[in-house]
Amino acid sequence: MFVPSGFSKVSNFDGTTAYIASKGLPLPPVLTVLTIVVEIGAGLALLVGLKARWAALALAAFAVLAALFFHNFWAFPAAEQAAQSISFYKNLAITGGLLFVAAFGPGPISVDRHDLG
Fold it and tell me: Is the pTM of this model over 0.85?
């Protein structure tokens, strides 16, 4: 889910930057690039199991930050709170899965579990 999301941000760079700016975050173009790098880079690393623990930690941090800054349902109008709370808790659930990978490592077919040398 992170990789396609990252590529969608590449194809809509200006829109993503404007959305980040609308949340009052500093340096929106830089944050857009960092978001793309994390979503695509760490997403692909997690997908193949290359430095999977680190990739999972990076994505977990990203998911928590996204929940806090973009799905802060308590700051939305009442009509939008339900939808935003679903996204907020979805991000927390994803974070739990990512922390599981960080704690226990990748699966048996991952790059990290095979000696490539």
Answer: yes
